[in-house]
Amino acid sequence: MTPPYDTFHMGRSSIDLYSDDIGAPFVAITRFAAFVGGSPTNISVGARRLGLRSALLTAVGADPVGDFVLHFLDKEGVETRYIPRKPGRRTSAVLLGIEPPDRFPLVYYRDNCADAELTIDDVLAAPIAQSKVFQFAGTNLAKEPARSATLFAAELARRNGVCVVLDLDFRPDQWHDPRAFGVAVRAALHTVDIVIGTDDELKATTLTDLSQVTVSHSQVSDARVAGDAEAAVHAILARGVQAVVRKRGAQGAQVYLPAGVVVDAPAFPVEVVNVLGAGDAFAAGLIYGYVHGWDWYRSARLANACGAILVTKQGCANFMPTLAEVMAFVESRGGL
Q: What is the pLDDT of residue 92?
């Protein structure tokens, strides 16, 4: 029997207020444009626009912002029937500045947020075990009850032969201690098949020394982590993960497999407007390739193309490319 969904995504959602004054310092912003965001939410939209049947397990408040998020997802065709409302909790919000090429400050408003209240009962009400891929984000693990609910969902998926994909999504300001991110992620790795992350996210996964972290005030939620990213990759693989996908921006991507196999996928050079959301577009492209049985090189190249398109746009979910747009993009640049 064919699973009802190709991909099931779990984690945060938000209204994203992006600066309309591109290039202006945050203090000089005069207006914002309203979009939808949140890493697993972005990936669910990206997967859907590529043609996959995607469903999302997040939570929103009983508020107009929740209406805004759900209205957008319904228009996109992402399955929302499993998204609970959490009375007394708020749909989260994010404010974002755009100062290319390398300053993209963002501020989270996640106090009392609804998606951190996802429970094991919410997981049981969703057919995660009947999907081809279950994807979640590292930020899910920052607070209870969402932490336990996510770990349970990953265990449930793994027991039922569903491919489990973890996008590390390291946001240091969402944790009481950046070392706690690594502790929580390492506890989840035995349920995970594919890990996706940047160098800093991969190093944060194995982090035990707080002196290795430098939080960037220009990025607010960004951090630089000292250490060897390749060593971190191998430490993650040693825990039984089947593939670690290392996102390297303009340098493309590398897929590390057991037995020392490394697949290098070159990037597609473009002029950067906004890097926020590019990693989520990348993940959607990679998952698309996996679902369709592509090899790692072709999947990572498609993922690179999706990310390259996104960095030329203003926002995240609202700008995810369609498959036709991605294929036209890659064909104009020599193909996959």
A: 97
